[in-house]
């Protein structure tokens, strides 16, 4: 008992660097959720809507974002607890896995909340993860009920161009989540001329056909609404001139991906 109390005390005092908090999110995990946006992301996705979350705070605590403790985040949740009945807390970014100790402490404390266990969801691009250093994220994944995992593209070369980082991180995290059996929803942004070929979408389907823990697949049509933030921050918008993705076509491509997934599962005897 003494150990539990001590560890809870430590968890609520752990500090994270946050961009913002949304009180009633409905698109980042099941139900209505408190959505916590972390500050800092090492990727540079060309279609990113949140370039204002990219920059990491400096070691001396200056720079973008606001420091908050786990306890302060949970207070925000408790203020509106009745509204989160079938929801919980989602941590997104930026990149939440860049602050694994903070998110692990938040999720542990959420599970142990005196007023009742809170469902925890991690929304990640996996940029920080590698199989070689999986133990760095072990405590975080131990306390994670669900993951929203981005598969940006199946094509390793395109991945580097599109996001500025290798594809291997997401694939290795996908393997780890499958090994652990953590329910995972895959997200894939469909960008005209980049990630909208039938071959690409089938390849995404084959990748996720290797993971038996996948509980859903979202194909998100690229839209241009993020451009205004780039203008505001005076950053060049990399997808200038690319039109928004047709939502109906994105739906068809998702069906192709699901078919390829089913084929892959059948090959594996699932
Ligand atoms: S991983 Fe997410 S936050 Fe980071 S650049 Fe890509 S879309 Fe933006």
TrEMBL record:
Highest taxon of source: Bacteria
Enzyme class name: oxidoreductase
Domain Radical SAM core, first and last residues per copy: 27-264
Cofactor field: [4Fe-4S] cluster
Principal cellular location given in the protein's record: cytoplasm
A Pfam match: Radical_SAM
One Gene Ontology term of the molecular function aspect: [formate-C-acetyltransferase]-activating enzyme activity
Sorted UniProt keywords: 4Fe-4S, Cytoplasm, Iron, Iron-sulfur, Metal-binding, Oxidoreductase, Pyruvate, S-adenosyl-L-methionine
Compartment(s) of residence: Cytoplasm
Bound cofactor: record note: Binds 1 [4Fe-4S] cluster. The cluster is coordinated with 3 cysteines and an exchangeable S-adenosyl-L-methionine.
Enzyme Commission number(s): 1.97.1.4
Family according to the record: Belongs to the organic radical-activating enzymes family.
PANTHER family attached to this UniProt entry: PYRUVATE FORMATE-LYASE 1-ACTIVATING ENZYME, PYRUVATE FORMATE-LYASE-ACTIVATING ENZYME
Protein's recorded name: Pyruvate formate-lyase-activating enzyme
Species whose genome carries this gene: Thermophilibacter provencensis
């Amino acid at each position: 008992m003494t150990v539990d109390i001590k560890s809870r005390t430590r968890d609520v005092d752990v500090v994270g660097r946050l961009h913002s908090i949304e009180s009633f999110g409905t698109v980042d995990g099941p139900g209505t959720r408190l959505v916590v946006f972390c500050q800092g992301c090492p990727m540079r996705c060309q279609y990113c809507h949140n370039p204002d979350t990219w920059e990491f705070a400096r070691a001396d605590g200056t720079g973008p974002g606001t420091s908050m403790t786990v306890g302060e985040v949970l207070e925000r949740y408790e203020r509106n607890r009745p509204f989160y009945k079938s929801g919980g807390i989602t941590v997104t970014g930026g990149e939440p896995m860049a602050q694994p100790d903070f998110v692990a402490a938040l999720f542990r404390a959420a599970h142990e909340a005196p007023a009742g266990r809170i469902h925890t969801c991690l929304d990640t691009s996996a940029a920080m993860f590698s199989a070689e250093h999986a133990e760095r994220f072990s405590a975080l994944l131990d306390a994670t009920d669900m993951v929203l995992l981005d598969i940006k593209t199946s094509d390793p070369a395109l991945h580097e161009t599109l996001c500025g980082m290798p594809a291997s991180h997401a694939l290795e995290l996908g393997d780890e989540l499958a090994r652990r059996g953590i329910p995972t929803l895959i997200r894939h942004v469909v960008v005209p001329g980049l990630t909208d070929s039938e071959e690409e979408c089938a390849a995404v389907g084959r990748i996720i056909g290797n993971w038996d823990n996948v509980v859903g697949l979202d194909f998100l049509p690229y839209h241009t609404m993020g451009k205004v933030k780039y203008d505001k921050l005076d950053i060049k918008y990399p997808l200038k001139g690319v039109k928004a993705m047709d939502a109906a076509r994105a739906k068809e491509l998702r069906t192709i991906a699901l078919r390829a997934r089913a084929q892959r599962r059948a090959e594996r005897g699932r």
